[in-house]
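re: ur question from yesterday

yeah so i grabbed the chain u mentioned. its 147 aa long if i counted rite. heres the sequnce exactly as i have it in my notes:
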Amino acid sequence: MRAVVQRVSRGQVRVDDRVVSEIGSGLCVLLGVARDDESADAERLAGKVARLRIFENEEGKFDRSIQDVEGAVLVVSQFTLIADSTRQKGTRPDFSGAARSEVAEPLYEAFCGALRAAGLQVETGVFGARMMVEIANDGPVTIILEV
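ran it thru and got these structure tokens back, copy pasting raw so excuse formatting
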């Protein structure tokens, strides 16, 4: 399981030109679920995201988590994060390591549930839909987490 975590001042997801979710200050998490991932991985990764200290304290140092600043989290499923481009002869990535949707969707939901259980406000994209994700990356700050 892999997450691209971005600190944002705002984020929004549109499907078919309709806003389906949006947040103000917080995190945007692009989440990729791999074929061998399990529910324990979703919980462990959600814990890492909830505790990740990428918000500044009064001295401007990264010392606060999303829990500390009481921000929101926008979680968007993105199977392309599991792409393998190291073994290809051409330029087309190999997506065979990504979990099938019937496995990935429950793990995506488990990840979001674990964030909610940590007391966070969580908004989501639409699993499997073609989405337009708009964010304002604050910093910019982008961290890649894996379990």
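noticed a couple things. The chain has a mean pLDDT of 96. also The longest helix spans residues 101-117.
anyway ttyl
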